[in-house]
Specification:
Blueprint: E1 5-8, H1 10-27, H2 29-44, E2 54-55, E3 63-68, E4 72-78, E5 82-90
Parallel strand pairs: 1-5
Antiparallel strand pairs: 2-3, 3-4, 4-5
InterPro entries: RelE/ParE_toxin, RelE/ParE_toxin_dom_sf
Protein name: Plasmid stabilization system protein ParE
Keywords: Toxin-antitoxin system
Length: 102
């Protein structure tokens, strides 16, 4: 099984910051940090068996999505050498407005 490096796009990094702020406001900073640590570990875990998840070529060629703890959709692409996390979509956030919950 080939191991690939995992990188976060600028948009995915912004998603992490927004999500962390959103959780911290509702459940406290410690809860937000624990949740983000689990989410980051799940993303980094895509370094092995990277071709998992559901293919969504209808949205973008090569796009894959996988769920995390029933609330996050991790959108990523896989190349020969790396996995790029493109976006992290949280079910309770309005992504058009970025910071407001639905």
């Amino acid at each position: 099984m080939k191991a690939r490096s995992v990188v976060f796009s600028p948009e995915a990094r912004e998603d992490l910051l927004i999500l962390g702020d959103w959780i911290a406001e509702r459940a406290g900073p410690a809860t937000a940090l624990r949740y983000l640590a689990r989410l980051e570990a799940a993303c980094l875990g895509l370094s092995t068996a990277s071709e998992r998840g559901r293919r969504r070529d209808d949205i973008r060629p090569g796009l894959r999505v996988v769920g995390f703890e029933r609330r996050i959709t991790i959108a990523f692409v896989v190349s020969q050498e790396q996995v790029t996390i493109l976006r992290l979509h949280y079910g309770g956030l309005d992504w058009d407005r970025k910071s407001d919950p639905i």
